[in-house]
Known about the structure:
With 105 residues, this protein is an all-alpha fold. It is 79% helix and 0% strand. It contains 4 helices and no strands. The longest helix has 22 residues, at 55-76.
Amino acid sequence: xxxxxLLIAGLLEIVWAYTMKQSYGFTRLIPSLITxxxxxxxxxxxxxxxxxxxxGMAYTIWTGIGSVGAFLIGVLWLAEPVNALRVIAAVxxxxxxxxxxxxxx
Length: 105
């Protein structure tokens, strides 16, 4: 169950990053409220997951999910530029997450 909490926390990190962008500096109410709610839920689920998952692993995976997810949202929905170096960086993050998980086996 802690891994499910960590996964959901990472997905909520993507939500709050996206809605923070949509809030235009917290000047738009609905995206601002979604950002705050998603942040609180993400931190809460991360904290619950950290009861069982070591800090270094939990935090790395949480930020990795958020980083790669925000990158994909930016490219797919916000038409942010994509180039080989950015894709390689995202792949390296994913590889790091896999290695982090494998290191605990």
